[in-house]
TrEMBL record:
It comes from Brassica rapa subsp. trilocularis. This is Trichome birefringence-like N-terminal domain-containing protein. It is a single-pass membrane protein. The chain crosses the membrane at residues 14-35. Keywords: Membrane, Signal-anchor, Transmembrane, Transmembrane helix. The keyword Membrane applies. Belongs to the PC-esterase family. TBL subfamily. It is found in: Membrane.
Amino acid sequence: MSTSSSSSSFPRTIVSYTLSTSLFIVFFLCSVFLFTRRALEPSLSPYHADIPLPDPRPPIEPLPSKDLNGKPHDADADLTVDTNPNQDEADPRRDGDVAVNTQPKATEDSDGAELAAKPDLEDEGASRKEESVEENNAESAEEQAVVEKLRGCDLYKGSWVKDGDEYPLYQPGSCPYVDDAFDCQRNGRRDSDYLNWRWKPDGCDLPRFNATDFLEKLRGKSLMLVGDSMNRNQFESMLCVLREGLADKSRMYEVHGHNITKGRGYFVFKFEDYNCTVEFVRSHFLVREGVRANAQGNTNPTLSIDRIDKSNGRWKRANILVFNTGHWWVHGKTARGKNYYKEGDFIYPKFDATEAYRRALKTWAKWIDQNVNPKNQLVFYRGYSSAHFRGGEWDSGGSCNGEKEPVKKGSILDSYPLKMKIVEEAIKEMQVPVILLNVTKLTNFRKDGHPSIYGKINLDGKKVSSRKQDCSHWCLPGVPDVWNHLIYVSLLIQAHS
Ligand SMILES: *[C@@H]1O[C@H](CO)[C@@H](O)[C@H](O)[C@H]1NC(C)=O
Ligand SMILES: *[C@@H]1O[C@H](CO)[C@@H](O)[C@H](O)[C@H]1NC(C)=O
Ligand SMILES: *[C@@H]1O[C@H](CO)[C@@H](O)[C@H](O)[C@H]1NC(C)=O
Ligand SMILES: *[C@@H]1O[C@H](CO)[C@@H](O)[C@H](O)[C@H]1NC(C)=O
């Protein structure tokens, strides 16, 4: 018994000892486990929540290093194409008949308002969402009041007012996206009054330009300029005016790493903090350039006025589109129209350039109607930008150097090119509303805004060279900044219509 009891008591002690040790160990492990979880959780989750993952960049597309024709791009041609706007003034009597209306169809269109509705808010947390909605309401009430004052005001009828406080929107030489050809101050231009003009509509004041607000309106969207080198001029301006709204300016970049040069026809700039892009697609005519082989075995250029330009696949992806064409329709092969214009497989031996322009715009209008969804896309057409050549044309010694003030009076102020009337006709017949950025008249004033001899470095500034002057494009900062200011104002109006 005692043996059994002693023999059984010894193992019993061991068993209870082992049991309590095991229990302690289990208890200890559990506590460690729980403690670790509690300690780790709070430090892990905010890490996930607060550090945003970088957005996947848009897929990189192979870029043609050559022109759409397959020819290397003719850099000089890009710079010097133009004509005096007076040439286009075919029928000045009709000017008074055309209704003065700032936003032809767009303001009547309620669909357009959805563009500013920021659908991406839905993805965010509920409390954050409420907060933003409240903020947005306060903002939009303020905005509403601003927009109310613009009602019935023709933004494009007015005058230039000197205002060194608001303009320039960025300092000369401060923006890395200005092409050499438009960087007038760096190229030696000494006078600076041309930098300080702001546009003042007769019936209202433009709301002050607000780059941050403009970027907010572009959040999650893409803005694309499609057209010739005048639109590249405007594109560079757009990059510069929006850049001023960035706290950290290194957070915008060209997604393929390209610097802007006139030889390249496609750029995509990403604004990382606003998840938006600003893009340029070169398309001189908006319709399709091609080539044909002649009897001598050479190739000649052709223009298919019934087919949309090859780059149209890119246009489809943009939320906001800004088109232009015009300056390439007035010179050389385009004006002569010999064995150049094409419809279907037929090449016209001779065809009128104005009629070709009209048909090309119809082709463009039809494409817009068939491919653009006005619920989430908005289309602008930027009107003809006037040139100011004295004593000759762009290719025959015309000049504009030494102009330091805008035109004050004279017939040039009222010139409205036939091309613009054709644009208005095309837009009127479209189903998709197009906002006409009717800048022709405001550019008529600005004979002082062109690069003239400062499209290239000219540091002595006095010697006037005999080479071609650029009296078509614009110095930056300069006139295209105002066009972009008008796009900003149009977006404000659009959001409240
Ligand atoms: C510009 O817009 C931003 C964002 O909408 C706003 O917070 C800011 O107050 C505006 N700045 C001015 C000077 O109005
Ligand atoms: C960025 O914008 C695109 C639309 O362009 C949208 O699909 C995407 O969800 C946005 N990303 C973020 C992080 O908001
Ligand atoms: C772009 O320009 C910058 C500054 O001029 C230069 O450092 C850089 O190498 C250029 N990049 C390319 C891809 O040409
Ligand atoms: C555009 O402006 C011109 C004046 O330069 C005017 O004659 C024309 O009617 C305007 N077009 C529209 C659609 O407002």
